[in-house]
Write a structure and sequence with these properties.
mainly alpha, 4 helices
């Protein structure tokens, strides 16, 4: 756990989960960018991939949020003020929360549309009936949150660059497991 680690370090399981979430989201992001550029009649595989990888991102984000609150708060790296460290962590927590909410809303949107949802070919039972109002409302929020997490990620990167320039704490600390 983080209470036995030096300042700015995190546990090996948080590091591993961070890399898994980063890699899985990178695949999902590729899927998100590719889907609109693919003809409508050729998107079936991309939809299955989107639901499957989206579900994995959702589960990993929920696990990471749980660990976030169950592990002791890490100490800031040397030279980084606690308030600056806390702000960076708040942005990261908001990003994780958006991933979790985005997953829930995404599945509500898919079920409202009547799309069959599966996890790499294993059917996930619909928890909501097909519904045009659900499709419209959840589709809007799913898209809006997509732009929101891009904004949060951009702010987190920009703030990390600022911290590097101002406090000389390094850019590598933005990678999972480097320095929190």
């Amino acid at each position: 756990m983080t209470d036995k680690l030096p300042a700015g370090q995190q546990s090996w399981r948080s590091t591993l989960l961070g890399w898994a979430l980063t890699a899985t989201f990178a695949v999902l992001f590729w899927n998100i960018v590719t889907m609109p550029r693919t003809p409508l009649d050729q998107r079936d595989f991309l939809h299955v991939m989107h639901y499957s990888v989206g579900l994995v991102v959702f589960v990993l984000a929920v696990i990471r949020i749980r660990w976030w609150f169950s592990e002791p708060t890490p100490e800031p790296p040397q030279g980084l003020p606690a308030a600056s460290f806390g702000f960076s962590r708040a942005i990261l927590l908001a990003l994780l929360l958006v991933y979790a909410v985005e997953g829930f809303i995404g599945f509500a949107y898919a079920w409202g549309t009547g799309h069959p949802v599966s996890l790499f070919g294993i059917a996930v039972p619909a928890l909501l009936p097909q519904s045009e109002p659900t499709r419209m409302a959840m589709g809007y929020f799913h898209s809006a949150l997509g732009f929101y997490y891009l904004m949060l990620f951009s702010i987190w990167i920009a703030f990390g660059v600022y911290q590097h320039l101002r406090y000389r704490v390094g850019l590598m600390r933005l990678l999972p497991g480097a320095r929190v």
